[in-house]
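Thread title: Can someone regenerate the structure for this chain?

I was given the following input by a collaborator and told the matching structure tokens would be attached. They weren't. Posting the sequence so someone can regenerate them.
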Amino acid sequence: METTRLKEILAEARAEVGKVIIGQHDVVEKALIVIFTGHHALIEGVPGVAKTLLVRTLAHVLGCDFSRIQFTPDLMPSDITGTSVFNLQRNEFSLLQGPIFTSFLLADEINRAPAKTQSALLQAMQEREVTIDRDTHRLPANFTVFATQNPIEYEGTYPLPEAQKDRFMLKITMNPPDRAEELMLAQRTIGRDSPESVLASGAIRPVIQYEELLALREQLTLIVTREELLAYAVDIVLATRQSENFLVGAGPRATQALILASRAHAAICGRDFVTPDDIKSMALPVLEHRVILRPEFEIEGLTGSEAITNILEQIPVPR
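Best answer:
Regenerated them for you:
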């Protein structure tokens, strides 16, 4: 079966990442879904839950390079994309590439930078290219943005505009570890196998090379998605636009993201076909950051995730 190699790589990648990241199995799966579908992720979690370590580990395991940008209020767009510098020896301008010229980019605390700086990522995320001094430069084919934000800190932050949030395929929530996982972390911290030291020691092996990632993405097209399941995904997204709970529902890009994410989820589960459960499991991370609740329902305590869950319960599931 042609998808066998894809399933093997996904299983190996999860195993290698698990040597560094304690717990967070659902988070690792969603991050792999984002990578293998060629999209981007918004990671939300309090400080210290290994958001940066997760992305560094994934880059190492998948044979890709990694860059990190710490977003701050004084960060300028050129600090991200790079700038043209005059070369006196050659008497011409040459490009000094910014950190965006990488495969895996960690945009740390993206909501700390103003909209002007955040918008520097829009063209890169959508078209995988950047324009510097009227010249367009291609980014690596595996370019993936993992943007992080702290859900409990609002002072000195700038909310992400809806157009930018729509560029993220999934919103991945990283919760603190449970007692058993945190005890394991404490035990490893006082020894020689803390998560950071395991990654630095070279004990984690890359499961593929950079070039193979593109070929494996193509294998996702072999995952079978029945017509009635496509209609099911469309009905879910349409329901967010028609629901009285939402001021703004999800757009057509959400439909595409839901179908692609469901297909990748099926591959991670070891199947070569999509089921309704794949779509239901991906609906919340795909839609939550794309919808806006009406203020009156928000005041009453309704959350976006609860409203989406209500929609999933109302739409008939195809057999």
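Residues 252-268 form the longest helix (17 residues).
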